[in-house]
């Protein structure tokens, strides 16, 4: 499973680690279709099939848990809006002020007890409480592009990158074949592999990846993407031990002081793809700092915080609308299907025990 295949996609150790993470990403990051029973695309792909796929990748389902990003911890804090977003969107969240939020850090994968792997995609779900009962929910990950342009690609990739039951690892030949026939995924993997993951959750950037549309008070609309950039994260203290070293580091960092991320909105220009999360926009696009996410509380997941929250990326305030990216509808439907399954099951205690850190 090392290198060597004479093709344009070198399968080195990192690629394979990335492959495992990517399989997890399938399990954790796939989102929603229009409706649970909706048939999507020529192969009648449904949200149910996507969530079944995620469960298979995880080696089964874990009652009460998310079918992707199952391992997580609850956080809370506020968004400090600096008013810089008002020119782009009429959404109330961009008026200068403080807005309460609840959130959840996670790792991609359907097993809540999986050991923390540095290469597993890290997730951050946020739920901002806005005036008039509106909410802005988002679920972001720490990689700058997604591996799949379409829900169908997501489904096929999670099959191709699934761990082989005999070895517990993805099969190199199957992955290679998949990448050769899916150049968008291969290109995205190349982009992801250019940067090593940050040493901690606190030092990680998080990307919304899918494009959205902002509408201002005059009715003008622009395509946007957003990201969170870490603002003065604490230094990494070196690799901790144990299966939850990454989460334990996050809990320790949050117990020491609040953690901050700048929310940056990137404005697309005509021709920038809004329907393909595998492709970056040119780096010179206008980036507007619209405020800061401040997290000052961390808790074990429970019914009192985010255990029963669906961070559906289509829960949006007036002034922010979805783009034509087909992943968005798919994510919404798959999250809903995952939520439906876990809602009917008794809930385990969150796997990351904050009091013990
Ligand atoms: C077709 C593509 C995708 C599918 C099928 C999918 C599927 C899922 C599912 C089923 C869940 C569990 C939802 C729940 O039970 O509440 C989930 C969680 C999550 N996904 Fe996706 N996802 C996709 C794409 C993405 C993308 C593009 C991102 C990042 C931009 C992402 C980030 C996350 C995060 C952060 C969570 C955890 C949220 C939480 O803490 O509740 N996913 N995904």
From TrEMBL:
Keywords associated with the record: Heme, Iron, Membrane, Metal-binding, Oxidoreductase, Peroxidase, Transmembrane, Transmembrane helix
Pfam families per UniProt: Catalase
Lineage: Bacteria, Bacillati, Actinomycetota, Actinomycetes, Mycobacteriales
Active site: 69
Name assigned to this protein: Catalase-related peroxidase
Cofactors that this protein relies on: heme
Enzyme nomenclature, EC number: 1.11.1.-
Record carries keyword Magnesium: no
Family: Belongs to the catalase family.
């Amino acid at each position: 499973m090392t290198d060597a295949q004479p093709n344009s996609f070198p399968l080195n150790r990192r690629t394979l680690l990335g492959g495992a993470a990517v399989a997890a990403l399938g399990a954790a990051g796939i989102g929603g279709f229009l409706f649970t029973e909706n048939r999507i695309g020529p192969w009648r792909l449904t949200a149910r099939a996507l969530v079944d796929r995620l469960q298979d990748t995880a080696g089964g389902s874990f009652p009460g848990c998310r079918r992707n990003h199952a391992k997580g911890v609850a956080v809370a804090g506020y968004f400090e809006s600096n008013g810089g977003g008002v020119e782009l969107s009429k959404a109330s969240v961009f008026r200068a002020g403080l807005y309460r939020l609840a959130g959840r850090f996670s790792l991609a994968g359907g097993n809540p007890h999986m050991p923390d792997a540095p290469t597993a995609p890290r997730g951050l779900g946020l739920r901002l409480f806005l005036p008039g009962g509106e909410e802005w929910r988002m679920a972001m990950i720490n990689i700058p592009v997604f591996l799949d342009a379409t829900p169908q690609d997501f489904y096929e990739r999670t099959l191709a990158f699934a761990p082989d039951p005999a070895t517990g690892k993805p099969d190199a030949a199957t992955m290679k074949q998949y990448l050769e026939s899916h150049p968008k995924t291969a290109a995205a993997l190349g982009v992801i592999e250019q940067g090593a993951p940050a040493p901690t959750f606190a030092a990680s950037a998080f990307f919304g990846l899918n494009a959205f549309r902002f509408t201002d008070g005059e009715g003008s609309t622009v395509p946007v993407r957003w990201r969170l950039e870490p603002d003065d994260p604490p230094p990494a203290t070196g690799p901790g031990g144990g299966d939850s070293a990454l989460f334990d580091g996050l809990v320790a960092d949050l117990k020491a002081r609040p953690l901050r991320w700048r929310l940056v909105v990137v404005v697309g220009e005509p021709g920038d793809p809004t329907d393909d999360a595998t492709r970056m926009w040119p780096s010179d696009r206008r980036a507007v700092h619209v405020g800061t996410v401040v997290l000052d509380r961390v808790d074990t997941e429970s019914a009192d915080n985010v255990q029963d929250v669906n961070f559906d990326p289509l829960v949006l305030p007036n002034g922010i609308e979805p783009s034509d990216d087909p992943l968005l509808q798919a994510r919404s439907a798959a999250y809903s299907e995952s939520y439906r399954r876990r809602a009917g099951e008794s809930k385990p205690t969150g796997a990351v025990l904050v009091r013990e850190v």
